[in-house]
Structure formats: structure tokens, C-alpha cells
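Researcher: Checking consistency across runs. Here is Flp pilus assembly protein CpaB again:
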Amino acid sequence: MNSRFSMILAGLLLVGALFAGYWGLVLSRTPAPVAVAPPQTATVEKTVAVVEDQTRQPVVVLARDVPPFVALTAADLAVEKLRTVPAGSLTRVDQAIGRTPWRTLGAGTWLTEESFTPGGPLARMIRSDERALAVSVDEVIGAGGQLSPGDYVDVLLALRQEAGNAEQSAQIIIPALRLLSVGDQLGLANDGKPASPPPATPEERTQQAQRRTAARTVVLAVPEQLLSRLMLATQAGTLRLAVRSADEQLLSHYWAGESDSPSKLQSANRDLYQFTQLALVGPPKKLAQGGSQRAGIEIIRGSQVTQQTATQQTP
């Protein structure tokens, strides 16, 4: 009985040992790799890149330095995509091939129509019968710092009573002159486009407005015939700039191609006191009445005025 029980017990232990060994063998095996979905980072980055590429605009730039007066070829050009496109920039290579820049341009320069047009910004803002003349201003002369390019102003001159000037006077030297720039802020060129790139961000616009308010120089478009008169006025006395109303539509007339230089000259000559007073010398003497008269020719050399006379008999 005992021997039979011992054999049964040994068999059970053997079966248990075999089961435990099998189970240990199963647990010791390396589990098969579980399929993991690929990370979504690469897909997201690709999507963002595609979206950004759609918001960028092509701009033609120079792939290398180019000398002036040499026609551009395809090898000189490249296209870059920018989020902010510079004003007036070219967007296709065929817009630049065969064209000749008028100055040396460095690699990376984005091209505009100005790259192929001679002259600086001011030269492209005036007509052939006008000249750009800078005038010094302060907060009072410059209408409280509220001047803007495109405004029209009357130039007034105040002369104090001094040793060389017998009468105190104030007069309009030249009416209706167009403001080309205030400080470093330029207006529009004659093609209707900004003469310089406009500010791209709110911060740049704020800084530009601050510089305009603090400007100490303005540039005026002066008819050629009145250039020397304005230059003399700046040295003779105190200037003021009086802003004209936008309701006069003077700027609209200018862009329509109308020229008001002749009328400005006639108006200035009609309203201006004798030029000898502006030159800080006394007015010419009256001619004697009856008998003989002396016909005089007034000669002006700078601020000096002399009379060359000849006797003329009157009947």
C-alpha cells in the first residue's frame, strides 16, 4: 500500500515538474514585436511646411554679384519664397532676363523696377521743370510736426525791421509747393508707387510716425524759375510753411498731368514785394517829375544793388 502510494505521488510530482518546465520555457521566450503606429511628428511637420509654402510669395533675387550696364542672364537670377514680399519686387525670372541694371548689385539683392531705372528716389518724384530743395524746419515752421509727403504748402517769409531793411514785412514767397519728403519719409514716385519700401510691421509704422514728427528737414518740389527766390528767402528772414486744404485737389491735378508752374510764377511775381526788399536793400527811388528824367537800370550782384542811369529828356 505504501509503495503504491509512493509511486502515485512520484508520478504526480513528475507531471507537475514537466508542466512547470513547459510553462517556464513559454515565459522565457521573447514576445513577438507589437506593431506600433508610426509617429505623427513627421506628418505634422510636412503638413506645416506645405501650408507655409502656400503663404510665401516668389521674389526674384540675384544669385551672384552683377556689374552695372550688363544685361542679366538666367544664371544671374534665382527665386526665393518670402512671407513678406518687398513692395514692387519682381516675381518671375523672365521679368529680369535681358534687362540692364544701372548700378552694381550684390548677391541676394531682390530686384524691383528701381533696379533698372537711373536716379534716386527724389529724382523719380519730380518732373523735368521741377527741382527738389531741402528746407530746414522745426516744430513751428513745420506746422507742429504734422506735415506729410504729398501735402501742399505756401512758403511765407517774415522780414524784421533792421538796419538793412527799412520795413517789417510778411509775404507769401511761393504758393502751393508739394512736399516730397518729411525727414526720412518719402512720398510717391511719378509712377504712383512708393519711392521707398513702406513699413512692414506696426512697430516700424510707429517708429516712422515718430521720426516724421521729430523731422528737422523737409524737401519741396520747386518750379525751376522760383528756385533762386526760395533759396534767397531761406537766408533773408524767417520762413513758415502754411498747409493748404486737401479740398483743393492739388495733388489730384498733379497726378492728372497738369502743370501749375506758370501760374505759380505769375502769382508769386504779382503778390511779391519788390525783389530789392527781399534782398534787404531799400526800395528804388521815384523818378523825378517833369524836365529831365533819369532812366535807370537796376543791377543786382548778390545783396548789392546799383543803379546805372542815363539822362532822358521829356517833352
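Researcher: Does this match what you'd expect to see?
Model: One thing to look at in this run: The chain has a mean pLDDT of 75.
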